[in-house]
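#structure-requests
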Amino acid sequence: MTANSSYLIDRAAAEKAVRLSLPMIEEAMTLKEVGESGFLYIVVMDPLRTPANSSFEEAVLYEHAIGDREKWDADYAGFARAKALVAWRTGMDSHKVQELQPHLLAAKDTVLWGSVVVDGIVVGVSGANAWYDEAFAGTVAMCLRALAKAGVVEARKSGLFLSPR
């Protein structure tokens, strides 16, 4: 399958959104009530790559690990990817799917939650308590949406259509 990629949400924008979110995330991770692993993994999906036009692997835009992966006590990357997959496939936060529409879960889907969908932007996080994973995913998604909005404002200065790259 060949799919377009988002013009304004590319790998560089995803990296920047994570970087903007990290001060809050890293400060929160010092609190025991947030989670005790000390590790976190973030997965950001390309909003134009959907199950209708690409594979999950093709849709993964950016991944970021916090903490020394050699010391991980669990597969946080695998969990974050599995959470992102549920949200990406259904177009809904993983918690919403599990609590309100569990009939949309498929074989081998995770029953962990901590991924969000914000206006088509999917982010999955694992390593903290699920409600904080969800908050961190939402933070990254909102920063990414803000960067896209800023990109449109900048693009309008050059004309009415986005120029090819």
